Amino acid sequence: MRIVSICPSNTEILDYLGRTDLLVGVDDFSDWPHAVSELPKVGPDLSIDMDKVAALEPDLVLASLSVPGMEKNVGGLEEYQLPYLILNPNSLHDIAEDIETVGHAIGESQLGMEKKAAFLDEIDQLRHKGEADADRPKLYWEWWPKPVFTPGAVNWLTEISELAGAQNIYATEQVASFQTEWEDVKARNPDHICMVWVGIKEEKMRPELIMQRPGWDMMSAVQNRNIHVLEESLYCRPSPRLLEGLRKLVEVL
What is the pTM assigned to this prediction? Predict the structure, then answer.
């Protein structure tokens, strides 16, 4: 079977299933596992080159709607009449379902069910540890600085926060992604600021930019120097690697 993945999280789900050997091409941002960097690239995940995808003669294209703008890719797949599967998870449970779905799609239904169960079991083990923490610090996750975007209640990072024994200050907003303002963040006064700018490497995210924002010097997180530059790929991609990010978050907190 020949598979093309056009989203990093899909590539990582296939890796979790142990079947990256089926990949014949990936999007430009797929970088895990490292071996996929040797595969043909079909363009950035928001602007896939369908000619390149078609040239690889895939039996299945793993598509996504996890980022606004990816609808264009799906339209291109339909235009080229390429077989595809769309994944669009918002929660850890959704990711578990996608593991099983991909397993079935590649003819490995039993493997998909087993890996789904293993993923859910790992979450349960980590959940019990998180629930033991009575004093839950408040986290502000920054996906993008201007305009300011942060995960809301219907997003995996709210779950990750809770599993780590903390709480997302924007869990009050019943959306996956919430646009807010610097003043509102300041008013919610988080204990920790987690910088995970989408698509930006850690070395380009500078905490001093956070500290210079008007009035933010009065926030607990800034006063206590609890500004954390985190690995974007472990927090912004809806894949099983979120649990690796969770473990690192526990250490940070």
Answer: 0.91
